[in-house]
Design a protein that fits this description.
With about 260 residues, the protein is mostly helical. The protein contains eleven helices and two strands, in the order αααααααββαααα. The protein is globular. Pfam families: CTP_transf_1.
Length: about 260
């Protein structure tokens, strides 16, 4: 616990000033976090980012991440993200032939999905910051409220297992408790946060986001269980890897954008 607290304090001291400042430093931080996330995913499957296919997947990720506010730079190349993505996929499939199938179709599919999974989530991290700090903190606080509520209420009242094959400690009662705690946070943001939505609408959206935040957590648990690893990485002592900390956000942030809250 002491190690978790120390890591959390140090990470917050480094992370929050950049989040507040925004701009290019925040974009570079997001690129770094997403790159580490992709590295963690590939490593779990025994694939190396320091390889030709790893380099291609990294370029694919960086293209997905390219911020909307710099679209005029992308336009100068006369290619869209979709076209570049197709090119990377074809190159990865070509690499399966070059390696005589030592790098398989399954490996190529995993690399593509890993880049898309991390890329989309962290892309909307930047888009949310561009919309305003309040939306970043709204996302963070509803996830923290969901996690804390699920833990403490589940520990006190939990009886029915939520999904024992994936995460044996999570309970239905804890999950519901987490949603209720997130709804309380939504009310506070609706009253004090100058959100671009009424309180009733905000509560409804928060319930959906809380549910999908928990699904993001379960997705992380599912692939860690599949690859038989405890944590996605070791970069954050006491917390695990970057994906261990951002699993819920990777689901919540795209959905927050789809709600057109700003």
């Amino acid at each position: 616990m002491k190690q978790r607290i120390i890591t959390g304090v140090v990470a917050a001291a480094l992370f929050l000033p950049i989040v507040f400042y925004g701009g290019l430093p925040f974009v570079l931080l997001t690129y770094l976090l997403a790159t580490i996330g992709l590295y963690e995913l590939l490593r779990m499957k025994g694939l190396s980012i320091f390889s030709p296919y790893g380099f291609l997947s990294l370029l694919f990720l960086w293209v997905i991440l390219f911020p909307a506010q710099y679209n005029e730079i992308m336009a100068d190349f006369y290619y869209s993200k979709t076209e570049l993505g197709i090119a990377f996929i074809l190159l990865l499939l070509t690499y399966t032939v070059i390696t005589k199938n030592s790098f398989t179709f399954e490996d190529a599919a995993f690399t593509v999905l890993s880049a898309i999974y991390t890329g989309i989530g962290f892309y909307y991290f930047m888009e949310t910051r561009e919309a305003g700090l309040v939306y970043i903190f709204y996302s963070l606080f509803i996830i923290w409220a969901t996690d804390s509520g699920a833990y403490f209420i589940g520990k006190a009242m939990g009886k029915k297992k939520l999904w024992p094959e994936i995460s044996p400690n999570k309970t239905v009662e804890g999950s519901i408790g987490g949603i209720i705690c997130a709804a309380v946070v939504a009310i506070l943001f609706g009253v004090f946060g100058e959100m671009n939505a009424g309180i009733v609408t905000l509560i409804g959206m928060t319930i959906v986001l809380s549910v999908f935040g928990q699904i993001g957590d379960l997705v992380q648990s599912a692939y860690k269980r599949h690859f038989n690893v405890k944590d996605s990485g070791t970069i954050l002592p006491g917390h695990g890897g970057i994906l261990d900390r951002f699993d819920s956000l990777l689901f919540v942030l795209p959905l927050l954008h789809f709600f057109h809250l700003w």
